[in-house]
């Protein structure tokens, strides 16, 4: 190992680790409260028809209950509204308890006027995010469960005709897949709420079954969007704390988002305002409360079921998950309300006004005559620290000051924020109103503050260009807000891409320290519901991380705005600085799952360099030297960029389609808005560094195991060149293939891998022992001829008897320098092939784990994503592990094989980032040509 190379590639590895640190540890702390069960949770197993139980022996469905409620449901005489919970990858049916318990407590608070029956499905904690072969089976089982659940309500006065679904992670995709089933009645499902579900694409596409399932589901929902407009879908993402499923994958297709689909982040949900990790999204108290409040508002009092009108359902979801108007949900009918009685009416004629109550006060109305302010001001803003969920602001048409006849309830313009509720009105939109009335209810001794002002929008809006990503945080852009108003808008120009990340520092300077109020800062992203809200701390400065989950759409010209709900006695300074750490975190978040593809590409380049060295130098160089000489991003990146450009022309795309080539993954990433400029270049260099240190780790493990082998058993002499294809080896290959077909292809690959690594350890040990023999006979501390392989260290002095020295002397006479060189070169080649084979095994490991976990139900994995590849690799690797470098040197296909590796490396980067399983195909082609070189 060269020190300079180790330092250089170690630096790139540190960059990856820094990005991972920001991804996993650099996010905000968990601010979710825990949900608790006040009674012991019970799960009643629902008996399904025998044919369903036999068809799905590992799946079950349960009814959740607690205490007396669980005992009453033991006879399955259900009268509630059915909700079905679907767990996700490796999820448990018991995850429904948070939803079920909170729903039960809320139902008891209204004397069980309405209540819900929560059902939950057990998928035996299958790893469906890593193995897509069971997704279709889960979907058909859910369909059978929906029909069985509705059968339980027959004979009621108001029997439900559909089931609402709440699904976590991959369960949300299964819920949407229900509609793709043949003969499925779409009226059976009216509402779907998904939690941290990757709707756009799988996180780790390690087999083609996952890709096919996603393609089928998403294409169906796009093509049938008009037919499915009566199905309401809400997708809730966890935000930046969810490092398993990035939130950009949870946003539903835009063709549905305008009609019956809504996508939000938990950090933007009113009364939640907290980012959740992938598991806490199912128990986060604030989010669960918002969900159950929405469900109770979704109930139609006439039918005692969930509303059939999709517009009402969307209005409820917007009320609880997008913009909470600080009041209980109600229909937006224009009603006439007369505000009169013994209340106190106070006219206000100043442009800035503050009302504070520290003790009990009576009901009061404050009226603002708009005619006196319209000429000088464009907006009216008011914020209230009294967190009542009541109407508090009204618009009036009459000119009286003691009574007010309202025709437009402006409370719907109110927005609930942490510590305050605020309303901002554009006066030109309410030209028919004569007054704005603020309602202050009886305070009952609670401290209450209300601040209002008229202002011009231009005076409260400033524009700040964000710093360039290559500034590395060395300089910043600043803006001072000299106005002492209640609200300020700081528009962040040129902030629209996911690879941008900034630290925003808001410094405030208040005149009165004792009366200083907490300010609220909201980073508003206009093209998606991913706003983040931060409450200022007691310190004078507050940091706000600014980064995106979804890039700005092409036809969208809106600007991200930092809204400051401030105090009148404070002045503010906003500092914007690029955050290099967060940029690395964004790269890992969006492209980290595809990093194995770039590592494999570098190993293929190194393998090609070894083959070229055989042609030019006559010997096989080590992996690290080959990697340094061949791992050049300019060999790959320009080809992909040119192909991506040419695919924009119809004539080139026609030739592309004739060759039956798939779509470039870079084009798919661009369409999804996740493509980074220079992202592929960065990942290729990082992949080189990881491949370099991966080889060092692998070589260190070989030294360790070879030392153990030498200690346990003296290795035999260097292996001789034998026939590659023998009857015994052929029978072993056939046996492994049959075993793989009858069980799991990944299991057969694991057996071949263990066999291969055992032979490499034996060869490594033999080479080390032979070198020791040469050293002892020559009586020198180091070999006189420097070895080409610096990664294999010579052994130290060995104490031996006279008989052993004579034995070693005879061994030395039989051992020639060419034999030693061939053995070392063969070892170099086998180490590189083992590096490639290790990544095949890692990519096939999910199916192996799934098979082992479900072995009690079936001995055969069906469908098997590794089956075809395993058949080829079993034969190829059993022959390769018995070959030597001499069989490759004389091959007429050696030049072709060396040139092929570059093409395979390019193809891996071109078609592998969004389809990880394809990397195994390209490695298989490379190893297949290696076998051909052994025979031809």
TrEMBL record:
All copies of domain GPI inositol-deacylase transmembrane, residue ranges: 595-935
Keywords, sorted A to Z: Endoplasmic reticulum, Glycoprotein, Hydrolase, Membrane, Protein transport, Signal, Transmembrane, Transmembrane helix, Transport
GO biological process: endoplasmic reticulum to Golgi vesicle-mediated transport; GPI anchor metabolic process; protein transport
Family label: Belongs to the GPI inositol-deacylase family.
Domain of life per record: Eukaryota
Stated name of the protein: GPI inositol-deacylase
GO MF annotation: an example: phosphatidylinositol deacylase activity
Signal peptide boundaries: 1-26
Role played: GPI inositol-deacylase that catalyzes the remove of the acyl chain linked to the 2-OH position of inositol ring from the GPI-anchored protein (GPI-AP) in the endoplasmic reticulum. Initiates the post-attachment remodeling phase of GPI-AP biogenesis and participates in endoplasmic reticulum (ER)-to-Golgi transport of GPI-anchored protein.
Topology class, membrane: Multi-pass membrane protein
Localization per Swiss-Prot or TrEMBL: Endoplasmic reticulum membrane
Uppermost EC category: hydrolase
GO cellular component: endoplasmic reticulum membrane
One matching Pfam family: PGAP1_TMD
EC code(s) of this entry: 3.1.-.-
Bilayer-spanning residue ranges: 690-712, 732-758, 829-852, 892-911
Coiled coil: none
Gene: PGAP1
The organism of origin for this protein: Geotrypetes seraphini
Xref: InterPro entries: AB_hydrolase_fold (IPR029058), PGAP1-ab_dom-like (IPR012908), PGAP1/BST1 (IPR039529), PGAP1_TMD (IPR056824)
Domain GPI inositol-deacylase PGAP1-like alpha/beta as annotated: residue spans: 77-297
């Amino acid at each position: 190992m060269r020190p300079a190379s180790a330092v250089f590639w170690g630096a790139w590895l540190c960059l990856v680790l820094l990005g991972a640190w920001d991804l996993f540890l650099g996010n905000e702390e968990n601010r979710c409260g825990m949900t608790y069960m006040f009674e012991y949770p019970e799960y009643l197993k629902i008996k399904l028809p025998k044919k369903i139980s036999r068809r799905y022996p590992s799946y079950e469905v349960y009814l959740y209950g607690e205490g007396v409620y669980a005992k009453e449901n033991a006879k399955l005489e259900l009268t509630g509204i059915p909700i079905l919970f679907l767990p996700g990858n490796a999820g448990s049916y018991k995850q429904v308890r948070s939803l079920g318990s909170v729903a039960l407590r809320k139902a008891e608070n209204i004397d069980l006027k309405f209540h819900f029956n929560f059902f939950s499905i057990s998928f035996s904690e299958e790893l469906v995010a890593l193995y897509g072969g069971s997704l279709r089976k889960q979907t058909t089982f859910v369909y059978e469960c929906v029909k069985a659940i509705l059968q339980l309500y027959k004979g009621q006065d108001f029997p439900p005709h559909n089931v609402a679904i709440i699904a976590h992670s991959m369960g949300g995709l299964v819920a949407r897949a229900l509609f793709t089933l043949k003969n499925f009645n779409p009226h059976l499902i009216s509402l779907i709420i998904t939690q941290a579900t990757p709707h756009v694409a799988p996180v780790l596409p390690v087999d083609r079954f996952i890709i096919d399932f996603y393609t089928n589901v998403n294409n169906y929902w796009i093509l049938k969007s008009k037919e499915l407009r009566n199905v309401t879908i809400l997708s809730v993402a966890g935000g930046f704390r969810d490092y398993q499923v990035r939130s950009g994958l949870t946003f539903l297709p835009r063709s549905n988002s305008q009609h019956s689909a809504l996508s939000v982040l938990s950090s933007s949900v009113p009364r939640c305002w907290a980012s959740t990790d992938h598991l806490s999204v199912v128990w986060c108290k604030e989010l669960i409360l918002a969900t159950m409040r929405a469900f109770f508002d979704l109930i139609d009092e006439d039918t005692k079921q969930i509303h059939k009108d999709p517009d009402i359902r969307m209005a409820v979801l917007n009320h609880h998950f997008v913009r909470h108007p600080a009041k209980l949900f109600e229909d937006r009918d224009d009603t006439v309300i007369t505000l009169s009685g013994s209340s106190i009416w106070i006219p206000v004629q100043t442009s800035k006004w503050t009302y504070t109550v520290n003790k009990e006060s009576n009901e009061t109305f404050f009226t603002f005559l708009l005619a006196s302010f319209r000429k000088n001001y464009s907006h009216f803003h008011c914020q209230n620290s009294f967190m009542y969920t009541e109407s508090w602001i009204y618009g009036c048409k009459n000119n009286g000051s003691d009574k007010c006849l309202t025709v437009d309830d402006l409370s719907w313009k109110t927005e609930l924020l942490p510590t305050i509720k605020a309303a901002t009105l554009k006066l030109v939109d309410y030209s028919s109103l004569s007054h704005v009335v603020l309602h202050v209810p009886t305070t009952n001794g609670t401290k209450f503050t209300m601040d209002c002002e008229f202002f011009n929008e231009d005076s409260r809006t400033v524009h700040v260009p964000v710093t360039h990503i290559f500034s590395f945080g060395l300089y910043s852009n600043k803006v001072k807000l000299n106005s002492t108003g209640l609200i300020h808008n700081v528009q962040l120009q040129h902030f629209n891409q996911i690879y941008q990340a900034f630290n925003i520092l808001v410094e405030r300077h208040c005149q009165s320290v004792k009366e200083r109020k907490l300010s609220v800062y909201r980073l508003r992203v206009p093209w998606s519901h991913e706003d983040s809200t931060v409450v200022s701390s007691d310190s004078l400065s507050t940091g706000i991380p600014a980064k995106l989950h979804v890039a700005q759409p092409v036809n969208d010209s809106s600007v991200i705005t930092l809204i400051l709900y401030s105090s009148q006695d404070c002045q503010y300074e906003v500092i914007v600085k690029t955050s290099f750490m967060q940029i690395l975190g964004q790269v890992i978040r969006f492209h980290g799952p595809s990093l194995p593809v770039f590592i494999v590409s570098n190993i293929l380049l190194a393998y090609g360099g070894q083959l070229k060295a055989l042609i030019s130098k006559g010997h096989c160089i080590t992996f690290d030297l080959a990697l340094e000489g061949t791992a050049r991003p300019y060999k790959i990146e320009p080809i992909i960029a040119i192909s991506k450009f040419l695919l924009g022309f119809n004539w080139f795309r026609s030739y592309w389609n004739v060759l039956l080539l798939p779509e470039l993954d870079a084009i798919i990433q661009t369409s999804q808005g996740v493509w980074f400029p220079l992202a592929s270049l960065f990942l290729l260099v990082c992949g080189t560094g990881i491949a370099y240190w991966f080889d060092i780790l692998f070589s260190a493990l070989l030294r360790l195991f070879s030392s153990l082998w030498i200690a346990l058993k003296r290795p035999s002499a260097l292996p001789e060149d034998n026939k590659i294809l023998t009857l015994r080896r052929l029978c072993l290959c056939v046996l492994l293939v049959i075993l793989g077909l009858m069980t799991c292809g990944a299991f057969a690959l694991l057996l071949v891998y263990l066999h291969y690594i055992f032979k490499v350890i034996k060869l490594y040990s033999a080479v080390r022992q032979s070198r020791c023999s040469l050293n002892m006979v020559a009586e020198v501390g180091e070999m006189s001829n420097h070895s080409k392989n610096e990664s294999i260290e010579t052994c130290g002095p060995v104490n031996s008897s006279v008989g052993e020295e004579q034995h070693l002397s005879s061994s030395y006479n039989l051992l020639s320098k060419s034999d030693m060189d061939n053995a070392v070169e063969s070892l170099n080649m086998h180490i590189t092939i083992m590096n490639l084979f290790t990544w095949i095994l890692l990519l096939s490991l999910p199916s192996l784990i799934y098979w082992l976990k479900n072995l009690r139900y079936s001995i055969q994995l069906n469908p098997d994503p590794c089956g075809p590849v395993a058949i080829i690799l079993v034969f190829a690797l059993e022959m390769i592990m018995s070959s030597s470098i001499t069989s490759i040197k004389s091959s007429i296909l050696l030049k072709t094989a060396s040139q092929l590796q570059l093409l395979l490396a390019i193809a891996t980067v071109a078609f592998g980032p969004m389809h990880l399983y394809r990397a195994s195909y390209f490695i298989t082609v490379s190893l297949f040509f290696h076998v051909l070189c052994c025979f031809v």
